[in-house]
Here is the input.
Amino acid sequence: MRLSCPSSYRENDSHAVRLLRILGAQKLSALQRIYGGKRIWIPKRGSRAPCAICRLRNECVDVWRSQGASVAAISRFLRISPKTAYRILQMRNSRLRRK
Here is the structure.
């Protein structure tokens, strides 16, 4: 699940209110300190993302692809569609070309 982590809590922000209800004030505050204002990926329940780098899905796709894993295998393991995996790889390639 991708979500935008709000950098601050506002009562009229339904997204922040939902996160507060799910996580509680202390955990939401910690999440905001680390990821405030950024989009983050939270694995679905039962996800088989065992390593620390896999918590950042795009980096995980990049690393496994550079190690020779197929897009189909990456998709199955992370439980994302092959189209999403290709989109992530395409974004990475376009960033590399700009440098």
Remarks:
- The chain has two domains: 2-41, 52-98.
